Every structure is written in C-alpha cells, then in structure tokens.
Amino acid sequence: MSDGLESNNTASDEIVRNRYLDILHQFTLRQSSLIKLEDIVWNIAKTAIAELGFEDCVVYLLEDDGITLRQAAAHGPKNPVDREIYNQITIPVGKGIVGHVARTGEMQRIDDARLDPRYIEDDDFRLSELAVPISHQGRIIGVLDSEHHAANFFSSEDVRLFTTIASLASTRIETALAMERLEKTIHHLEQARSDLECQAEELREARQAAEAASVAKTHFLANMSHEIRTPMTAIVGFADLLSREDLDRQHQAQWRNQLNQNARYLQDLIGNVLDMSAVEVGEVSLNFEPVSLLETVAEAVDTLRARADTKKLRLETAAEGLLPDAIITDRVRFKEIIVNLVSNAVKYTEQGGVTVTLSTERRGTDVLLSLVVSDTGIGIDPVQLNNLFKPFNRVHDTHQMAGIEGTGLGLALSREIAKALNGDITVSSLRGTGSSFTLMLPAEVPPDTVWEAQPAVNPFLVRSPPIQSDVIVDRAQDLCDLRLLVCEDSVSITSLLEVVLEAAGAQVTFCANGSAGVRCFDEQVEEGRPPDLILMDMQMPIMDGYEATRYVKRLRQDIPVVALTAFALADDIDRCLAAGCDYYLTKPLQIHTFTQELRSILERFGA
C-alpha cells in the first residue's frame, strides 16, 4: 500500500511540476512580447502568480528616488477591478518585510506574521508572507510579495518558483524602466527645449522691442529736430526780414502771416509732445464746463483754414440734424482733438478737400456727439491701420512722401484724450481714395439747452485773409549773377530763400523734391549753364537729398553741394558728407549772414 501511495504522490507532484513548468513557459513567452512596464508587472501578478494558484500577490517597484517602494501591480483582494489597486500604499526601503528585502536583497519567508514585528498590515492581516527581490545585475529594482491567511503556507518549492519568476521578469522590468526613464528624459528635454524656445522667443521679442524702442527714440529725436528746425527757420528768417526799416505794409503783412503760421505750428508741436508725456504718466488734467459747441468747432476748424488755403484745398463743415448750443466737456481738450484730426487730414491731402461733419444723438439728458473728419487724401494701407494710433508711428511711405511733416503723435494723443473724455476715435480708409476719422464723444447737456438745426454747408465758416506772395528786392549783392539750384520741399522755407537769395543778386531755380532737382540739373548742364552752387534739403518726397546729391556728384565733382537740413545730429552730418555734400548748414538759418556764408563756401571751393 505504501508503495502505491508513494507512486501516486510522485505522479501528483510530477503533474504539478509540469503544470508549473508550463505556466512558467507561457509566462516567459508572454513576457518576451511585452514592452510597457505596466503590461509586464500586471502579467506577473495576473498571469503567472494567479495561474499558479496563489490567492494574493503584489509587485513592488523601487521609485526613482531609490528610497521608496510603490505598489505597481496586484492579484487578489488588492486588485478588485481590472488594473486598479485598492488602497495603494508606498513602503520606505528598510521598513517592513518588503522594505527589508529591498534593502538587503535577501528573500524573506515568514511562517507566522504574529511573531514578526516587521509585518505591515495592508488590506488584511495574513499569517504567512513570502517576499523575494527583483534584481538586475546585482541592483534591487523591486520586490515580489505574496501573503496567505494560513500559517506555514509557503514551501521551499514556492520560494524557488517566486525567485524564478522574479529572475525571469527582472530583465524585462529593467528594460521597461530604462525606457520609461528615457521617455521621461526625452519629455523633460522636449519640455526644456520648448521652455528654451519660449525663453528665446521672449528674449527675441524683448530684444526686438528694445531695438524698436531705440529706433523709435532715434527717429523721434531726428524727427523732432527736423520738425522744430523747419518752422524755426521760417520764424527766425521772417523775423529778421521784418526788422528791416524799408518795408511796406503789404510785405509786413505777408511775412508776419508766415511767421505766425510757423509759430502756431511749432506751438502745436511742442504742445503735442508735452501732452503725450502727460498722457503716458497718467497726469492728464480735465476741466469740465459748459462749452459752446458751434463756436468751439468753428475755432478749431478755422485754425487750419490758412493751411488748407495754401494747399488750395476745400475745408468744409456740415451739420446734420438738431444740435445743442452747448455741451459739458473739457473745451481745450475737445478743441485739441479737432485740430489734430483736421490737421492730419490737411497734411495727407493734396487734391480735393476736407469735410468736418457734426451730428448728435439724444440720450435722455445726455448727448452722444459724432464728429467726422473726411478727406480725399492718400488713404491708409489696411496692414498699417493697427499701428495708426501708436505714438511716433508714421504709417505713410516716409521716403516717397518725405515732405509730409509730423512726429506721429497727433492721432495717438487725440485717441488717448478722447478715452479720457469717455469717448473714442475710429477710422475707415481706402488706399488712394481718402480716410474718415470719427470722434464719438458722450457729454452732458446743460439745463435750458437750445436745440437748433444748422445750415447744410459750412455752418462754422470763418475765413482768414489770403496769403500774399510778393517779394521785395534788397540791395545786398553777395551772390550777384550766380546761378543757384535750390531743392527744398517746405513752402515757407522756399518763400524765405526766394526773398533772401534773389535780394542778394542770385539767379535761383527752385525744385520741390530731389527728382525735380535732378531733372533741372541735367537740363542746366546740357544747356551749358550749370549751377554755381546747389542747396540741397536732405529730406524730400519722391527722391531725397542723399540720392540726388550722389547723382550730381557722379556727373560734376566741381559743383559744390551744400546740405540744408533740419536734421542736426552727429550721424546726420556724417550721412550728408558720405552722400557727397561738400558743406553742411542746419536750420534755422541765420538770414543776416546766410548769403555771406554761401559766398565764403564758393570762395573756399574755388568758384
């Protein structure tokens, strides 16, 4: 009987062993096709351990910090659904039975957990525990742990089985861990690269902003120099002419008018700069008071009428519907907006005219005022509309239209003032057909306000006397019979030079831009009467003075070219001389000594 029982036990053990071997074989085959760490550890728990018949198993992996073990996969009560772990915990290396295995690399088989103080109760208390290390090339990377409710459950065969599974899986786990670390590293590198690219882009934007600010500052200083010196030339020049004792009333009136126009322009320019500075630091002061609507609009429009007359432009006003005789607003700021809008329209219009249309909309005791300034000027490119209200930006082609003066402050300032008055300015424009700027301004209406309809055309018309253009002849003959070619786009400066140079006996030909100057120069050379001296303004439309000077000097080095410009920075001098100019005179001109300076230049040049 004993022989038979032994034979049956041997056969039974052989069946179990073969089953174990088959499970391990299938486990190894499945592991070979797995790549992701999650798939590998769950295959250990759910396939190998579960199919071997053990009721509980947890796969612990060592965290990247090297001091913590985390539960990565489980079989049994710890795994109620799919790949979820109930009450997932972490164990410090060295703590508990699992932590001891991770620290020492020694297998631990506990037959009665009640007798081992290291035992850590997780989801339930169990008497038996088997923990074997998962190691790769002598380095612990995890722990395979199983527990059972019965004491003395795990056998030596179980120890060998768990150790085999841990050994078979270790390489796959390490490879997957390495791939995860690599992917994390790649992700961190990608994130770092992305962060560096963002930082680089921010630095590029900051550098571009700094460069743009530097360029804007340089342009602003250059433009301010030009914008101030040009009217100052006319002011100083005509003031000198007015000091003469032999003037008749006609010439006094003409030159006084020129002086006043340029003084007002300079006053407006300085006012805009100061106002823009106040706006930028939030120090705009407002004084709300009852304001005569028609009178204020009339005064503002009439300020620009002489300038429009000089360019032979229509400057018309119109009113639509009923208008209140007064509104409550800041009179000075309201007028400043209108002056800036109309000035801008006149500046960019060469033919046709400018129309100012006023209308209102009643809103209870208040009113929404609409003032539209329309022109038939050059219009605005759609891509430039976003930059239109930025300070110091000039959206037109400053090379082809260099004669259009300005600092780029008027529109920016006007919009900021409008916003301070709780209004706004909008624009619609089409390149080549003109622009329309609309001021929308809410305002209170004083008590007892009278609402009236106004004439359809020019209800605000106040016309200034026309400007005379006659000149007088002086007896000074510093430039007697000398031929001068003058390229200058400013009408005021041209008028002044015409008086001074012709009074000095010179034969003067005036050209409004470099292109016309070049054509005139070619004609004079071809006719055998080239100019003795050329006065060249450097900033002009169509062709500037630099290009015109280079052209002249390629043909005739013997004719002196004198730069006559309102740009007066050191770089401007170098640029003029580099273009071929022989001498450099800055505006404003000293009229009393101007012709002697030219005479001296001619003598030094050997003419």
For the largest sheet, list the strands in their spatial order: 3-2-1-6-5-4
Indicate the mean pLDDT: 81
For this structure, the CATH topology of the largest domain is Heat Shock Protein 90
Distance between the termini: 145 Å
Strand content: 15-25%
Figure out the total of helices.
14
The CATH architecture category of the largest domain equals 2-Layer Sandwich
Summarize the amount of helix as a percent range: 40-55%
CATH class of the largest domain: Alpha Beta
Uncertain stretches of 5 or more adjacent residues: 396-403, 462-475
Characterize the largest beta sheet: strand count, sense, and whether it forms a barrel.
6 strands, antiparallel
Oligomer: single chain
Rough shape?
elongated
Radius of gyration: 46 Å
**Full CATH superfamily name of the largest domain:** Histidine kinase-like ATPase, C-terminal domain
Tally the structural domains: 3
The strand count comes to 20
Broad structural category: alpha/beta
